[in-house]
Design a protein that fits this description.
Rossmann fold, seven-stranded parallel β-sheet, three-stranded mixed β-sheet, 11 helices, 14 strands, 39% helix
Length: 327
């Protein structure tokens, strides 16, 4: 079996590559290394049939040539991270919209089943208790760049869905809820690795906003094994499926937990959103997933709690040869 993974040198993508290689897949990775790293692929490189292609999902011809003849496609390439989205809104829109269009059109044309990675960001400011896949999306002003990522990923889902329905090619949309684990960097705004790096350096842990906003973090080791089974389950076709964890925590509570588990001497400080991201930034107060659809479809049950997730980052940072992330 031959798999194409766009964004395969990134955090989640590289773990997916490891998983597919372990299952015996021949894996081709397409990544422009803008946020990914070849270091993330050291475990997969050298496996039979593994190939890395440095390139852009905006290159339609390249995307088509890689997908042609493959058996399955996992599209994870995207502009990610709050800092990245806010600082480069136009580039982010192009990658997320046109890149997905290129992947989906090639997959549909060559009759290759495909998975599109989406995000809990599509729900916007909806803070319902247990967000379901059918819940409403609530966005702020269109001129606030914070919401460009959510809007683009929502359109990605629509493009994938319509092509799936019209072509009959199996398509699954996965909505990731704050997935965390080794290889994730804090430099683009991901909060857990940023807190861990600050704590391990005994630097102040910077909480943006009041710290009362609540999140639910999922482990990459729970989520990645669910991707292939979803794409092999016909009842999941042309559906969006939530994937994430089960333990909710405030951001201040997360900072306290990181300090406790790392034995850090770091003080916890608070920074206004505008100081962190610039004028006009908006955030949502709560994001908690209902993953009952994934449980119904493939028996999805996240096994790792928040302590496990934090420890996995700490252990990775302590691993021989690891390079400390800038806090």
């Amino acid at each position: 079996m031959k798999a194409v993974v766009t964004g395969g040198a990134g955090f989640i993508g590289s773990h997916l590559c490891d998983h597919l290689v372990a299952l015996g897949y021949q894996v081709t990775v397409l990544d422009d290394l803008s946020t990914g790293s070849l270091e993330n692929l050291v475990h997969a490189q050298g496996a039979p049939g593994f190939r890395f292609v440095e390139g852009d999902v905006l290159d339609r011809g390249l995307v088509d040539s890689l997908i042609k003849g493959s058996d399955v496609v996992f599209h994870l390439a995207a502009a990610v991270g709050v800092y990245n989205i806010v600082d480069n809104p136009l580039r982010s829109l192009r990658v997320n919209l046109h890149g997905t269009e290129n992947v989906v059109e090639a997959a549909a044309a060559h009759r290759v089943p495909y998975m599109i990675a989406s995000t809990s960001e599509v729900y916007g400011k909806n803070d319902a208790n247990g967000l379901k896949e059918s819940d409403d999306r609530i966005y702020g002003p269109a001129t606030t760049s914070r919401w460009s990522y959510a809007a683009a990923k929502g359109l990605d889902e629509l493009v994938a869905y319509v092509h799936g329905v019209e072509s009959g090619v199996p398509c699954v949309i996965t909505r990731f809820f704050n997935i965390v684990g080794p290889r994730q960097t804090g430099r683009y705004g991901m909060v857990v690795p940023r807190f861990v790096d600050q704590a391990m350096a005994d630097e102040p842990i910077t909480v943006y906003g009041t710290g009362t906003q609540r999140r639910c973090f999922g482990s990459v080791f729970d989520v990645v094994p669910a991707l292939l089974p979803l794409l092999e389950t016909s009842e999941a076709y042309n559906q969006a499926v939530n994937l994430g964890g089960h333990e909710e925590v405030s951001i201040k509570g997360l900072a306290d937990r990181v300090v406790e588990l790392t034995g850090s001497r770091s003080p916890i400080t608070f920074i206004d959103y505008e100081e962190a991201y610039g004028e006009g930034y908006e955030d949502m107060q709560r994001r908690y997933p209902d993953t009952s659809l994934a449980a119904q479809l493939i028996g999805y049950r996240p096994e790792r709690d928040l302590n496990d997730i934090i420890r996995s980052l700490v252990e990775h940072r302590h691993a021989p040869g690891s390079v400390p992330e800038p806090a």
